[in-house]
Amino acid sequence: MKFHQKPITYVSNITIKVENINRSIAFYQDIVGFKVLRKTATSAELTADGTTSILTVEKPEGALPKQERTTGLYHFAILLPSRKDLANFVYHTVDVGLQLGASDHLVSEALYFSDPDGNGIEVYQDRDPSTWTWNGEHINMTVDPLDFEDLLQEGNRDAWQGLPEQTVMGHIHLHVADIPRTKHFYEEGLGFETVTQFGNQALFISKGKYHHHIGLNTWNGIGAPPPAEKSAGLKHFTLTYADQEAVEDVVKQLRAIGAIVEQKEGKTSTVDPSGNIIILSH
Fold first, then answer.
1. CA 176, CA 275: separation in Å to the nearest integer?
2. Strand pairing partners for 124?
């Protein structure tokens, strides 16, 4: 998990909007395996280790259904500590009747599904970084079928006890309106490095030679509009930098490229060219 701790810049929390808070809490507890850290009538901070919130769910007043063909959340990705944990989770999904998509990305093995509001979720485990293949600054990733038979040999039925304490938010994948402006913002503004790019369709960026902390795609259409403010989906995500000086440097970079930066109530935030809100923390 060295890729998800300081001094590397990483995604530390995702905040999503939902239509029914109680339905969402039940789903994220019973199906995904989170614990509730803090709760109000309209929100819940969810945790794996009992201390740190890596996912927050909120119900806006007048919440609307998730809108299709917009920018925003494609999926957020929960990184499990081991392959055994992933296998145990598969057994659990069979028991609860959860339908899954799955892929082998060479660097990782991943499961895909959605919450009751259509927010995309990935649960995955990384292969040992020593097995990843780099071509210069670019990493080899693919979308191959997942070998469930081999994976399940690692786990045990009834072994799943919820998300392990070492679980972290592994990455976020966003729908964006176009790749060139997005690439400029995330590289020159936020300081990330591109590790894989598929033309003007998808971009994968990271820090510290991770396979990706953020994925960005135009699969909802080039020029896709942002969703309505109260629709289910992404509210914002948080990037954690090494220290206050690093955040200040990023703020300077963002302002230098003409990006929006807002500082109020002790929080610093910015907005990418597709309307995705990002909290900058340390």
1. 8
2. 79, 110
Question: With 70 as the cut, is the pLDDT of residue 14 above it?
Answer: yes
Looking at the predicted structure, is the pLDDT value of residue 1 above 70? no
How far, in Å, are 36, 153, 166, 263 from residue 80 at the CA level?
A: 18, 17, 7, 33
Domain around 156: 2-281
State how far Cα 251 lies from the chain centre: 22
C-alpha span between 233 and 245 (Å, rounded)? 31
Name the residue among 10, 44, 11, 52 with its Cα closest to residue 163. Answer: 52
For the segment 34-56, what is each residue's pLDDT rounded down to a tens digit? 999 999 999 999 999 999 999 99
Each residue's pLDDT tens digit, 228-254: 999 999 999 999 999 999 999 999 999
DSSP string across 92-153: HHHHHT---EEEE-SSEEEEEEE-TT--EEEEEEEPPGGG--EETTEE----B---HHHHHT
The pTM of the full predicted model, rounded to 2 decimals, is: 0.97
For residue 251, the domain's CATH number is 3.10.180.10
Residues β-bridged to residue 64: 231
Do the strands 108-114 and 277-281 form a parallel or antiparallel pair, or are they unpaired?
unpaired
How far is it, in rounded angstroms, from Cα 59 to Cα 231? 10
Looking at the structure of the chain, the number of domains it has is: 1
- Measure the CA–CA gap between 177 and 159, rounded to whole angstroms: 42
pLDDT number for residue 265: 86
